[in-house]
């Protein structure tokens, strides 16, 4: 249930060469860092406001990290305006939240910054702006969306501030659970299961024409399971290595992707954004945690996704018989 949400843990894919670092301070415990995708990673102690990074801090620890351990604290996907104040910029660096928990948040910005220079953030809650002292935990570039993701931890927040964050996390979790339960291919899940699923999600955005994933690929950042919350996505099939044949246009509530997670096989089709698209994502690390911590829910999600893929495969075979 959402009442178990205590901290933030920003998601990423499982990868053998990921770098992990714990974010902590003398005053309050910090959530552990997520396993990182194979993107360019900036750890605490680096400075990256310009094109050249400083040498890695000597305290930086690298090596394989168990993503299940790192994702032991759930969080909820959110999309809120954020202002970050650091020593690198004269004014505020604008961003958007990708997920939020009681202990911190994952923030998307257009520019990197020195993690050590982070001072505070201002989150634009629906009711008011909330200012919180913050500590930078990790940072990585996401070339698919041309953004920088930063994991931050709230620094010794007051009880009144935590109350506001709690309200936002619980409200966002309820809305996501209601969306999953009523408007998606996962409607067969019970409401409590939908609430559990909401705790392992994050938001991603794509512009018109962006390739979300490509047919025949696997093992990259976009192996995830996706649900459309805004916009339209076209699934297309490459025929004879030349023709991109549209299969179906997906809209709000439709489920797609995830075959590399379920069956360890490449994507059977390509997915392209037709408009500005916002997706709810369950990535490899989240799916692994789900299967470990809530195996029945992980099983139900897998069955629902395989049913969707089987139906589309039947449609694909029908289309192929007409073309060939």
Number of domains: 2
Strand order of the largest sheet: 3-4-5-8-7-6
Can you say what the CATH homologous superfamily of the largest domain is?
Answer: predicted glycosyltransferase like domains
Main β-sheet: number of strands, strand sense, barrel status? 6 strands, antiparallel, barrel
As a percent range, the share of helical residues equals: 25-40%
Approximate shape: globular
Number of strands: 16
Kindly report the average pLDDT value.
77
User: What is the radius of gyration?
Assistant: 20 Å
Give the structural class: alpha+beta
Q: Which spans have pLDDT < 50 for at least 5 consecutive residues?
A: 1-22, 24-72
CATH architecture of the largest domain: Beta Barrel
Strand content: 25-35%
Distance between the termini: 50 Å
Output the helix-strand order: EHEEEEEEEHHEEEEEEHEEHH
| Number of helices in the DSSP assignment | 6
CATH class of the largest domain: Mainly Beta
CATH-derived topology of the largest domain: Thrombin, subunit H
Provide a concise account of the structure shown:
With 324 residues, the protein is an alpha+beta fold. It is 25% helix and 30% strand. It has 2 domains: 2-167, predicted glycosyltransferase like domains (Thrombin, subunit H, Beta Barrel); 175-323, Jelly Rolls.
């Amino acid at each position: 249930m959402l009442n178990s949400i205590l901290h933030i843990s920003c998601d990423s894919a499982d990868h053998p060469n990921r770098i992990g670092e714990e974010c902590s301070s003398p005053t309050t415990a910090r959530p552990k860092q997520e396993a990182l995708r194979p993107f360019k990673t900036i750890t605490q102690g680096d400075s990256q406001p310009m094109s050249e990074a400083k040498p890695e801090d000597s305290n930086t620890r690298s090596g394989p990290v168990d993503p299940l351990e790192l994702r032991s604290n759930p969080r909820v996907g959110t999309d809120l305006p954020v202002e970050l104040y650091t020593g690198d910029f004269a004014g505020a660096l604008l961003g958007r939240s990708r997920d939020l928990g009681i202990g911190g948040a994952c923030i998307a910005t257009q520019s990197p910054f020195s993690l050590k220079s982070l001072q505070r953030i201002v989150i634009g809650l629906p009711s008011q702006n909330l200012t919180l002292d913050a500590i930078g935990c990790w940072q990585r570039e996401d070339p698919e969306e041309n953004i920088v993701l930063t994991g931050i931890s709230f620094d010794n927040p007051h009880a009144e501030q935590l109350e506001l964050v709690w309200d936002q996390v619980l409200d966002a979790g309820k809305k996501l659970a209601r969306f999953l339960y009523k408007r998606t291919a996962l409607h067969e899940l019970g409401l409590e299961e939908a609430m559990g699923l909401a705790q392992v999600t994050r938001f991603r955005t794509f512009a018109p024409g962006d390739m979300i994933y490509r047919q025949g690929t696997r093992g990259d950042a976009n192996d995830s399971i996706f649900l459309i919350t805004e916009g339209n996505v076209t699934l297309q099939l490459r025929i004879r290595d030349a023709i991109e044949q549209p299969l179906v246009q997906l809209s709000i509530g439709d489920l797609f992707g995830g075959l590399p997670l379920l069956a360890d096989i490449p994507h059977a089709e390509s997915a392209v954004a037709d408009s500005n698209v916002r997706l709810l994502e369950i990535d490899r690390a989240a799916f692994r945690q789900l299967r470990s911590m809530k195996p029945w829910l992980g099983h139900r999600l897998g069955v629902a996704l395989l049913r969707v893929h089987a139906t589309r495969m039947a449609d694909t075979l029908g289309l192929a018989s007409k073309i060939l």
